[in-house]
Write a structure and sequence with these properties.
The protein is of the alpha/beta class. The chain has eleven helices and 22 strands.
Length: about 475
Amino acid sequence: MEKKNTWETYSAKQIKSCDKLAKEYRQFLDNGKTERECNDTIVNTIEKEGYRQLQECIEKGIALKQGDKVYSVWMNKSIVMFQIGEEPISEGMNILGAHIDSPRLDVKQNPLYEDNGFAYFDTHYYGGVKKYQWVTIPLAIHGVVVRKDGTTVEINIGENADDPVFFISDLLIHLAQEQLEKKAVKVIEGEALDLIVGNKPLIFKPDKDGDKDSKAKDAVKSGVLDILKEQYEIEEEDFISAELEIVPAGCAREAGFDRSMILAYGQDDRVCAFTSLRAMLDIGEIKRTACCILVDKEEIGSVGATGMQSRFFENTVAEVMNLCGEYTELNLRRALSRSCMLSSDVSSAYDPSYAGSFDRKNVAYLGCGMVLNKFTGSRGKSGSNDANAEYLAHIRQIFDKKKINFQTAELGKVDLGGGGTIAYILALYGMNVIDSGVAVLNMHAPWEATSKADVYEVYRGYMAFMEEASL
């Protein structure tokens, strides 16, 4: 089956709309390099569009009716949104589900130390990364530090032009003969991903005996702590209750002479989070209630209180149904089992430089539209949700009706590895689920690439799904 290049199908008006959406998307990426930042950005956006906090509605006993829009945030890292439709929720919802966490380096709880004139942050990598890709590039620190008294300090250092940046060193090529003989997985090891955060010692005044050496122990570390205390009122012990993420410094950029692509950190999976959010905001009146779930922890198995495996989503649906006057345990089960979902996650894009890793007939191509993955998983489909043929036919019918350019794909050659999404977790309720999203080049690297046309088609596809799905 031939895959159509989406650019060849666009009118001048569509190209203009595509560029406009891509600009909004780049701003979204720049404003949300962590889960917390994504949540803040999303809440600020949706409240302007008429969304209300679900908890406020619960406390005030506000009944929900057709057209109402509510949202709920969990631990500042996951969010779910609802637009109430014409039909009872017990008849099922149309759900978009993406994740907003991305591979990165996390700062450990006892991170700051000095070694031969350098101050370092000790880190622990998060998610699947090629560790050698993280050395010698400019890095930024994002996150929060919560003091013992409960006050929170927000950290964002390395993004503004006058901010300092940070980096991880690598061995110079002149002395790297032994290093270069190692396998790639060993060239840079996890415990070597320590972030250089300072090199200037704190200058002490001599005491009355003229002795300053005893006070100057770990003087570079002391200098860093002095800056943290002065600028952020942070003590060393405050790292115990901190969540600091190390991410590539710099903004999302247009790529290529033709500006057809976007190069940025964190597109897996914030590209699907953004397009899901935008689709939720742009749908009109709907028959079935629309729902968008944006969750944390997908990169490490969707675990924990803010991952898809938690009961946050199920509990929130129950609260919404209660305000709609529909809640019973049976109605909740019916609502979940009768729902349709697009598990909105990225797929690998064909890379001609590494052609041997892909099945060319069954891989996504950059610029060829929205990707549908009937199954993900590893090797023999381990960990996969394998969507049924009837549901695929229903999705095809919707996309053909709305003239959505889409392609089907697998991650790569079946014996080379694999990956999963949140699809199998929602499928546990018995609902119809299929993976869908944007093809990504350089997936899980510090800088990932996508096609503007694919971003636009996925947005259009998500809109069509929310308005038309009913199986």
